[in-house]
Amino acid sequence: MTLQPLALQPTTRHAMVIRRYYSAPATEKARKASGPLKGVTILDLSRVLAAPFCTQILADYGADIIKVEAVGKGDDTRHWLLPGEQAKWKKDVGPMSTYFSSINRNKRSLTLDLKHPKGKEILMRLARGADVLVENFKPGTMDRLGLGYDKLKEQNPGLIYASVSGYGTTGPYARRGGYDPIAGAEAGLLHLTGERNGPPVRPGLGMVDMATGLYIHGAILAALHARARDGIGQRVDASLFETQISLLTSVGLSWLNLGAEAERWGCQHPSIAPYDAFQTKDLYLVCGATNDAQFADLCKLIGLDSLAIDERFSTNPKRVENRDELGPLFNAVFKTKTTAEWIEVFTGSGLPFAPINNMERTFAHPQTQARDMVAEMPLGSAVSGKFRLIGPAVKFSETAPSIRSEPPRLGQHTSDVLAELGMDAGEVEALKQEGVV
Q1: Which of 105, 212, 267, 309 is deepest in the core (most CB within 10 A)?
Q2: In the predicted model, is pLDDT for residue 11 greater than 90?
């Protein structure tokens, strides 16, 4: 069976997409329901966290995400279940997990063997009609498959080809695999994270992965804008290592310009004091003073008025220098009340403060509810028939992001996507029998 090329030429198709992307829909209702990226098609060949997090954001904004997964296996995170989690999923839905579900809603799943000649041909046809392709294989993998950027841009000059890797596509470490804690270690994050004078500690979330996803999502939008202006696509190349280097910000510049080595500070701030998590009678409260006026207000609020006129603490540089003397004085006071009592004291003060909340208190927070940060939707894969998801973080006044579809079952949309390429049911079945899809 020979797959026929798409009849629509890439340049024509992209001109249509650009007009849809930048032209107002016919009605206000249509404009508000479409999402800002309605009409943009993205091939998502990525797995695990960084790039899928990126494409979920773009999906929430209205893009059509076709998630291309390995036949029979799918994204690795489909198999990453917590103890006891398996019982939450129906037995006949294939591999599924809350981890996978957290970063793969609003996507369509197509299974495809990219090593098979027919699988490559299908991917090529899809790329001809796509606006963006996102992949996070080791650099060189897509080229070896005959599906690298240079090959695909011959077929589709308007394609935005986004790559995410551990170290980028050039340099002596380009061929190494990419993992969040490895990038965090090698690019300085773990050196910064942990208690003072204690061992390094990994953050509780994959912060380097997710920050890379945020970087590449912004880069994709910038490349779409450049294509609308200039008429051509391009490759955008992000890495976990470079992301973490860029996140060093002031700490990095202190080393580059002052030779000041970074230290671990726990919950304290390296250049502001006091700023810490203070233990209360029952939990912890984070608070501090970012300037001298706030320090005076804070001292008065908690009954340590005399500290505001103490020469050791009269300015922020002096407080930083004498933090080891200042900290115990604050610690002793905060242990005299519960966190709830301190919140009542601080409320209305204008000072920065917050309790350290666990997951229960975080998701019960009134601001979480007010800003629609939790959404519940029907989910056929779940035994309960429903599922709760974290809502989009950014709000739009005119083209609101939305949660339109559940995290897909493995290969759930294979037949639909192939039908959009003009294949009938017999052709699709033949490809399944060959293991291509």
Answers
A1: 212
A2: no
Distances (CA, A) of 324 to 197, 330, 389: 13, 11, 43
pLDDT above 60 (res 189): yes
Q: Whose structure tokens read 């050791």? A: 312
Q: Annotated catalytic, 310?
A: no
Give the burial string for 72-102 (b: 16+ CB within 10 Å, else e): eebbbbbeebeeeeeebbeeeebbbbbbbbb
Rounded to a whole number of angstroms, the distance between the first and last alpha carbons of the chain is: 14
Residue 107's nearest CA partner among 436, 423, 409 is 409
With residue 164 as reference, give the H or E element that holds it: strand 160-165
pLDDT tens, residue by residue, 134-184: 999 999 999 999 999 999 999 999 999 999 999 999 999 988 888 999 999
Catalytic choice (44, 64, 113, 209):
209
Helix axis angle, 207-230 to 50-60, nearest 10°: 50
| DSSP 8-state class, residue 217 | H
Query: Are residues 291 and 219 in contact, defined by beta-carbon separation less than 8 angstroms?
Result: no
Cβ-contact 43, 132 below 8 angstroms: yes
CA distance 140 to 187: 23
The pLDDT of residue 23? 34
Which residues contact residue 354 at a Cβ distance below 8 angstroms, ignoring those fewer than 6 apart? 285, 286, 287
> H helices of 35-101, where?
50-60, 98-101
Q: Is the pLDDT at 236 greater than 70, yes or no?
A: yes
Do you find a cis peptide bond into 274, omega within 30 degrees of 0?
A: yes
CA angle (259 as vertex; 257, 260 as ends), nearest 5: 110
Higher pLDDT, 294 or 30: 294
Burial of 335 (0-12, 13-18, 19+ CB in 10 A): exposed
- For 292-338, what is each residue's pLDDT tens digit? 999 999 999 999 999 999 999 999 999 999 999 999 999 999 999 99
Burial environment of residue 211 by CB neighbours within 10 A (0 to 12, 13 to 18, 19 or more): buried
Domains of the chain: 28-249+380-434 (3.40.50.10540), 284-355 (3.30.1540.10)
Instruction: Report the half-sphere exposure of 386 (CA within 13 A, side-chain side).
Output: 4
Q: What is the C-alpha to C-alpha distance for residues 234 and 313, in angstroms, rounded to an integer?
A: 54
